[in-house]
Amino acid sequence: MDLIQSILMGIVQGLSEFLPISSSAHLVFTSNFYKVFKGIEIVQESNQEIFLDIMLHLGTLIAVLIYFRKEILEIIKALYFGLKNKDYSSRDFKLGVYIILGTVITVLIAYPLNEVAGGLVFQPSIVGMLLIGTGVLLLFSEYMSKRMGEKKDISIKSAVIIAIAQGLAALPGFSRSGLTISAGLLNGMDRTVAARYSFLLSIPIILGASMVYPLVKIDFHEIITYNWTAIIAGTIVSGIVGYVCIKYFLKFVSKFSLGIFGYYCLIVGIGTALFFWGR
Hints:
mainly alpha
């Protein structure tokens, strides 16, 4: 892994984590296209590449924490005072409960898929086919949302369905934001509300993965040999690009359809599946 690869993947992670196009798929594509370009055999990722992937997600986690810092603080305060005063009626208290419930459901679904997801990292053709599935779902949810009234509030039913969608997105190619926003739209939610909730729901999962993985699987004797210049550069780039992406994506989604991302997923998914088929 070199500096150019790390920065390139940082840009890709920052853009694709919050756009409904699957960050995991695009990291797989970018890494494998880079290997093909450099004449490197496509094999299972090294520990250093896996660690870079974790750090890139940490960069985008910092971006979402900074952007939603006021909302996060209000949710924490609502949970604290709601439990203290036994008043569970506030919108922020309910939102906090839904995020906690959604996180538990996500883990229960995503954990059994972890081994399968890891195996797909070096099978970009299959990841491309899963990205096609994301594109189909985005287009279908947009079509159906035009036939429903849009709700500003989140119900427990919506929270559970969105959590299930997030759990399935453990598989690279299934976009986390794409599946969760689509699930919200199919439940009649306003697309801006669905997008904001999707980003807030991502925080515990990304935080857990960023903290738990290094403590459990990283060899700290090996880690000092990594290219830390490249890793730090990629992490910073992913954070900056991610923050800008959140800001402008929320403005975009408030005015325009997500259909363009659905068509993008179809085109990239088909092209990538064909390119890597048999490699």
